[in-house]
Structure formats: structure tokens, C-alpha cells
């Protein structure tokens, strides 16, 4: 039974991936793919040591030219990341939009300060985590909440971080195949931000690749048996002001 469940889930997931396609700012949609470096294919990244884990690309080539838009936001704004199964799927036409319901796992958001949000060089950036949602005490997963909310996840920009340009890295980790490494499916895209009205905080940072290891309990994870009771979201703690 266990193997049957896992096999079906893997089969169902073969083409049921996801892409962060739109950013909302204080409840206002910024436009489909506006300011977001989206891939041409909605597949996962599974090698946490690869540069693809930074802002996707490589195994899922980025759409070119990269977007020229930089989304203006204020520190402290409420942002919403919206995911879809593909670049043009909707929940009305696609049961696997925004993501296959079986792709359970956490949702995580990071920021990295950059001199220019249009930079094509994403290696060597210093990232800090501003949001995470894993499995709650009722054993419901962040992905289930995202699915129920039509692909949308809300989070707040810290009010104390420095003004300037940033890349925002929004990520889903699907754990249905994560019992061995590589197996966890990482889905991430980077949005180009210009943050104003900030402060002078200097958050501790991590690198991508580097922030995750194949042995992390949040990357190598048994989703099915025994039924998990806790989940440790990978990466650093969430920065708060
Ligand atoms: C970023 O925002 C500041 C403050 O509103 C503005 O002066 C600047 O031109 C913006 N930069 C970009 C690249 O949009
Ligand atoms: Cu998938």
C-alpha cells in the first residue's frame, strides 16, 4: 500500500509542477510574470548544491530576455506571491493549478540585497529569510494552504531592512519524493524589487547554494510512513526586526 501510494503520487506529479508567476503589493496585482524571472519549463530543481537553486535556470531555462521591470515597494508592505501550475494555467481549467495537491511541503521566501535588481549574476549573493510556513500543529502543510488560497501566499517585508534593490526568492519544496536525496523538488523564482522607506538593519545571511544540504531533515524527509508529526523547514531562521 505504501509503495502504491508513493508510485501513484510520483506518476501524478510528472507534469504537475509549479511556477511563482505574479507578485502582489498591498493587495494589488503587479501583472503576470512582471518583474519575475520565470522559467520556460515548470520543473523542479533537485540538486541543492547547484547554482540552479539560486533563481532557477539551468535545468529549467529562464525565459529571455530577463524582465526589465523592477517592482517598487515599501519596507513593511504586505506582499503576496502567486503560484500557478504553468505560465498560463488557471484553477478553472486545470485541476493541478496552482500545484498538484500531493506536492506537500513548505513555502519559503528570501531576500538578497543587490546593487541592481536587473543583474544577471546571481552567484555570491547574501540571502536572508523573511518568511516560512511548514506543517502546522494540525498536520496541514503550507502547500495545502497555498492550494486552498488559489496559489497565493502572503508575507510582510521587514520594515527595518535597508532601502535599495533586492532579489526576492520565493520557494516551494515538494516532499513527495524526498525520502532519499536527491528527491525533494525545489521550485523557486526570483522577483526584482526596489525597496524604499527602509531602516538600517543588517540581517545575518546565507548563501545559495550552501543554505541547504542533502542531509538536512527538511530536504531528506519521509512524507508518508510513519506519518510525520513535525517538520523542520530548511535554511536559517526567519529574520525579524
Ligand atoms: C527606487 O525607489 C526610489 C524611491 O522611490 C526611487 O528614487 C528610485 O528611482 C527607484 N529605483 C528604481 C530602479 O526604480
Ligand atoms: Cu511536480
From TrEMBL:
List required co-factors: Cu(2+)
Q: What top-tier enzyme class does this entry carry?
A: oxidoreductase
Write down the superkingdom of origin: Eukaryota
Asked whether the UniProt record includes Oxidoreductase among its keywords, one would answer: yes
| Record domain Auxiliary Activity family 9 catalytic: where | 17-231
Gene3D superfamilies from the UniProt entry: 2.70.50.70
Where in or outside the cell it occurs: the entry states: Secreted
Q: Can you tell me where the transmembrane regions are?
A: none
Reaction(s) catalysed (UniProt annotation):
[(1->4)-beta-D-glucosyl]n+m + reduced acceptor + O2 = 4-dehydro-beta-D-glucosyl-[(1->4)-beta-D-glucosyl]n-1 + [(1->4)-beta-D-glucosyl]m + acceptor + H2O
Arranged from A to Z, the UniProt key words for this protein are: Carbohydrate metabolism, Cellulose degradation, Copper, Disulfide bond, Hydrolase, Metal-binding, Monooxygenase, Oxidoreductase, Polysaccharide degradation, Secreted, Signal
Q: Which GO terms describe its molecular function?
A: cellulase activity; cellulose binding; metal ion binding; monooxygenase activity
Per the annotation, which location comes first and is thus the protein's main one?
Answer: secreted
* Gene Ontology CC, one term: extracellular region
GO BP terms: cellulose catabolic process
| EC identifiers of the protein | 1.14.99.56
**Is Metal-binding tagged as a keyword?**
yes
Q: Where is the signal peptide?
A: 1-16
Q: What is known of its domains?
A: Has a modular structure: an endo-beta-1,4-glucanase catalytic module at the N-terminus, a linker rich in serines and threonines, and a C-terminal carbohydrate-binding module (CBM).
Report the sequence similarity comment from the record: Belongs to the polysaccharide monooxygenase AA9 family.
Concerning PANTHER family, the annotation shows: ENDOGLUCANASE II, PUTATIVE (AFU_ORTHOLOGUE AFUA_1G12560)-RELATED
> What task does this protein carry out?
Lytic polysaccharide monooxygenase (LMPO) that depolymerizes crystalline and amorphous polysaccharides via the oxidation of scissile alpha- or beta-(1-4)-glycosidic bonds, yielding C1 and/or C4 oxidation products. Catalysis by LPMOs requires the reduction of the active-site copper from Cu(II) to Cu(I) by a reducing agent and H(2)O(2) or O(2) as a cosubstrate.
What name goes with this protein? AA9 family lytic polysaccharide monooxygenase
